[in-house]
Specification:
This protein is an alpha+beta fold. It is built from 11 helices and 11 strands. It has a 6-stranded antiparallel beta sheet, with helices on both faces. Strands 7-8-9-11-10 form a 5-stranded mixed beta sheet, covered by helices on one side. It is elongated.
């Protein structure tokens, strides 16, 4: 087992030294260019498979390797899992899906946190029984780290039995740090996506509970009461319960259509204000209510996630106007106050009273609106509108601007 390190310098003439210095200078420039290229690719690539393919392709071209692989630690930290590979035969890919953490040169590179290379891969050949490792001229193993945390290794399988220059070994280490950062970013993105999916599913569950579940529970009670009335031969009371159940069914059907419409409607990619224009058009087409709008916000300054949450809250507030208020007028005011941006939805309808249903109802989606507001550090305020109906106000704190630097 050989380790990478500086080889003894041969005795050279002055002319040879000058030529070597020129070659070394040119090599360093090439190394810097490749490092910049790899860094740029890793920074802009969000698809993990494409990222690893770009990475390995560049490193194989640089080192003259026949194949390359990236391995990461499993969750329990006991094994190495093959995350991506380029140029490896199918039988090797199948055999190398997972290996022991202490396996051969890979284990040495991880334990000693240093670049290692070997010209004979007897351990790999004996473990897999595959001819690829017998025929391979050598392998370089580079640890992958990010902020002191070991993530795994990457392997380069060499075409020829040759020493790797020290400068190239340093470049391998520098590039491994960039790849480690990219892998960690990819992990964080997956975690964020997972949390987003969980939050969205919880939101859907809440909305279904606040609309369909309550309506269905009411229908179940009415059907049970109707059955009891029929058993007592009380036709008038049974017919009244039938009417209640029919009204609840109509309500459930309307709520279901509304929920499907909300889930299908996505925010305008041009931003919050364009999305609000679309909501106003949708409200007018569905109900005939013209939404009066006033926007006094000169600079929104919200993140994309904050804009999405604000959009869904306003969407729900306007849906309540359309469903329950009986309003003929509605107004949306957007302004910036001392406590942050204020988005106020008002109408001239019934206000916060029962919406005329045969069963008592909570205000649809109000708890979900509050949950969304909390996600962006805001709050929901309820009041009676000067128009005569309900007033719902969302207050979202404005992110502080960075302080100006003094000369």
């Amino acid at each position: 087992m050989n380790t990478m390190g500086p080889a003894p310098a041969p005795v050279r003439s002055e002319e040879g030294d000058v030529q070597d210095a020129e070659e070394q200078g040119g090599y360093k420039l090439q190394a810097l260019r490749i490092l910049s290229e790899v860094s740029a690719k890793l920074a802009c690539e969000h698809n993990l498979e494409a990222l690893l393919e770009r990475f390995l392709d560049t490193l194989m071209r640089l080192s003259g390797a026949a194949a390359g692989a990236v391995r990461v630690l499993t969750t329990d930290g006991r094994r190495l899992r093959l995350l991506g590979a380029l140029g490896l035969p199918d039988d090797v890919l199948l055999a190398e899906q997972e290996t022991d953490l202490d396996c051969g040169i890979c284990g040495v590179a991880l334990r000693e946190d240093d670049v290692r290379r070997a010209f004979e891969l007897k351990t790999c050949a004996e473990r897999t029984g595959l001819p690829f490792f017998h025929n391979c001229s050598g392998m370089v193993v580079v640890p992958l780290k990010y902020r002191g945390k070991v993530l795994g290794v990457y392997n380069l399988f060499l075409r020829e039995r040759s020493e790797v220059p020290e400068d190239l070994a340093l470049l391998f280490t520098s590039i491994s740090e960039h790849l480690g950062m990219a892998l960690e970013n990819a992990r964080l993105m997956r975690e964020n996506l997972r949390m987003t999916l969980i939050d969205e599913r919880q939101m859907i569950a809440n909305e279904v509970h606040d609309s369909l579940a309550q309506t269905m529970a009411y229908m179940k009670m009415r059907l049970s009461a109707m059955q009891e009335a029929l058993q007592q031969d009380d036709k008038a009371r049974a017919l009244a319960y039938v009417a209640d159940a029919q009204q609840a069914l109509d309500t459930a059907y309307g709520d279901l259509r509304e929920l499907l419409g909300q889930f299908r409607h996505r925010m305008d990619p041009l931003g919050l204000f364009h999305a609000i224009d679309a909501l106003a058009l949708q409200l007018r087409e569905r109900t005939g209510i013209e939404l009066e709008r006033r926007n006094d916000i000169h600079e929104l300054g919200l993140s994309v996630d904050q804009e999405v949450q604000v959009f869904h809250i306003l969407q729900e507030a306007l849906a309540n106007v359309a469903r329950h208020s009986g309003a003929t007028r509605a107004r949306l005011t957007m302004e910036t106050g001392a406590d942050g941006h204020r988005f106020t939805v008002e109408d001239d309808g019934k206000g916060f009273v029962a919406a005329g249903h045969a069963m008592p109802r909570h205000h649809f989606g109000l708890s979900i609106m509050r949950e969304r507001a909390e996600r962006v550090g805001g709050c929901i305020e309820l009041a009676r509108s000067p128009l005569g109906g309900a007033l719902v106000r969302l207050v979202v704190p404005v992110p502080p601007k960075p302080a100006a630097r003094r000369p």
